[in-house]
Specification:
Length: 444
Amino acid sequence: MSLTDCNHVVYQVLHCISTIIEVSNKAAINMPFEQQHFWGLVALRQRMFQSCLLLIGFLLCFAPAALSFGIQRDAYHPDCCRRQSIPRNVRTFASQGGKSGDKMATATTDQTLDLPTFDDVVEASNILEGIAHNTPVMTSRTLNDQLNCQAFFKCENFQRMGAFKFRGGYNALSHLTEEQRTCGVLTFSSGNHAQAIALSAQLLGCQATIIMPLDAPKLKVAATQGYGGNVVFYDRYKENRDDIARQIQQESGAVFVPPYDDKYVIAGQGTSAKELLESLVTDHNIQDGLDYLFVCLGGGGLISGCALAADALSPNCKVIGVEPEAGNDAQQSLAKGEIVTIATPPTIADGAQTQYIGKLTFEIIKSKVHSIITVTDQELIDDMKFFGERMKMTVEPTGCLSIAGLRKMVRQGEIPAGSRCGVIISGGNVDLTRYCELISSASS
Ligand SMILES: Cc1ncc(COP(=O)(O)O)c(C=O)c1O
């Protein structure tokens, strides 16, 4: 019996007692006091009153213990539908050393975390085989000439539902048991993870509830609903999505699928870099991998998975994370050695408006990511225009973080001539009216 069931039973008992008192009061109202005694009404009401007091006393004494038992059991009971509890809003994770800069191969790892490995990425790519697209890897001579390097774009804007998120979402849902799938799934997202979970749930035959901010791009909301997702809106500047998710989870028992801080989500996202590195060998005759891999960063799921793949398949490759300037929480976290929480950043890169990175992603980023850099919104707009004009692709603002990061490092003289640079274009879901507005303010 769950805590909610207990509450229900106690409520029912109290309700019965109060009904009996009310009925006896009504019966007694026109009756002389002696007759009430005769029919036992006075004694009945007294007993009922005493029972109420006893029950309230019992609740006051035992409720805290019952509550803590209930919470512990909810969190760890193996039969429980919940795979992972909703993360707390305040998430300060004390790391043991770790600063921005070189790969920290010696950084200690929190042994209690169930971190994904490259084997999980390989398993995810087997699961996704024939279900997710092996997206194209494209190049641009114009850009290579401009930047004096060889850039390879992994075009996740051509992935199912328009972004890499399908990989992690489908992989995560594939690992649920039949029983868990019957309870349905639940998540929160500003858009792409929402669509990924809605579509994956539809393909795997389960119900998905998605908590989305009121200001999420219309296109992403419509697509999520189109895939059969049940969308619940919230005000991201006033309400706490964790609380809303926790309440829905309590009511429905749905399985919470985190947008980034999950072993199977991370492993699924890593398949994009795995495919990119494999295609260099098969399609471009490049045997010794990449020198750099540029990956955009919100909560860190994509970059963590990609870093696992790069570490295994191209060990000399430096993985560079790129964040919007207004939302550099990951950069701050690396510098401080603990997860830093920021206010919702004002940036057009809605996929990177996260307030904090995850515990798992932070751990992987600390050990496998070379550095994290930031770019401005104007740089993202300029690259949206570049992709549209020169490569004939619609790329959403967040999807332009990685190329903008590459350009910035080239400008700063940090990329040696001729370097092979992988660039993950993470998604292409942007409202076309918004797209036109944005590119009309491009610098050139
Ligand atoms: C297009 C796009 N790129 C990048 C990201 C950031 O991914 P992550 O949270 O795994 O770092 C998101 C997240 O929603 C996204 O939608």
